[in-house]
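Weekly modeling sync, notes
Attendees: S.R. (lead), two postdocs, one rotation student

Agenda item 3: backlog of single-chain predictions. S.R. asked that every request posted to the team notebook include the full sequence so nobody has to chase files. The rotation student volunteered to paste the first one in as an example of the format we agreed on. Action items at the bottom.

Example entry:
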Amino acid sequence: MKKIKLQKFIVMVCLITTLGVPRPVAAMGISSQCGILMDQMTGRVLFEKCADEQMYIASITKILTALIAIEDGNLEEWVEVTDEVIDQVGSSLYLTLGDEMKLIDLIYGLILRSGNDAAFAIAQFIGGDEETFALMMNERGREIGMENSLFQNPSGLDETTYNLSTARDMAIVMRYAMDNPIFREIAGTQSHRATSRDGKTYTWTNKHKLITGYYEPAIAGKTGFTKLARRTLVTSATKDGLELIAVTLKAGDDWHDHMSLFEYGFTQYETKQIIEAGELRFSSEQLRDYEIEDRLYVNRSVYLTVKEDGSETIRTNLILHEDEADDEEVGVLQIFLNDEVQEEVPVYRISTFEVQSKSWVQRLFSWFTGMVSIYDS
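Predicted structure, as returned to the notebook:
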């Protein structure tokens, strides 16, 4: 099999794709003190206002509480309602002392009605006590990329303990949570009926107005309020294949802020496939210029969210490793958006075995369809 001549150079895989002259982002304001609009698929930030300022966050804290309960707990297990659960102040599910609720139902009550009693019951059940659960929250937050957050309780109350975060960190945790199908289902539910172990029935409706019919694209979210934090809000919405996350802190008119943010995103941006998983295709000129004699592939597709008006530039660079390795990664494909690296995708050599092991049906399908992997608008 021919070898790739792996020299120390950077290969320009495709021409720079210029979709017009760059234009400034549309002027836009929100009533909230801080906020952010983030793309769910790529994590690209489409709008931000003091997105890294640490603030009290109130009950949007419960996004992380719910996430830990879903990931670490047995959702069908019964959770006891203790004295400490009943003593929680603020919004409540009004649970009965000594009764038991399934963990999954407590999570519904936590998100839909913002029950502080549910938050404490979950913390006690998962962590053993509130302090241990808070340590779990901080550790899990760091693991998923929340770099500027501090959690001392599972509810967001800020009278004796408190939680601090940023608009960016809350968008990060919401993006992570929305990749969990159980959280996605719960956070987008309009109403849930639950029954305790002793037969008491509860019906909880979602406090988030955008989800309950005020804004059709809204699919999930969490509300929050304390005197210190004021109004806080997290919402996910989707339209025409684009899914976005809006976060506002210390809001004046958060419902309209979120709708304005979403409409800006939906009208200005679209998500496009830039690289398709499979074999990279090179022109004969590229093969000759860069002495690439072997077949290369990437094992995953890459998408970017870009402005619809064609004002952004996308290009790719192939960087081959200096040392050869027959069955290992031989380089990386960098994807640039406006001259900033957005993704680095490992590049592999297609071995003789891999080529020959394809069935005749697969080879025939590949021959008919080809494999286009470099973005070209």
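Discussion: group reviewed the output briefly. Residues 274 and 375 are 4 Å apart (CA to CA).
Action items: rotation student to repeat for the remaining queue; S.R. to check formatting next week.
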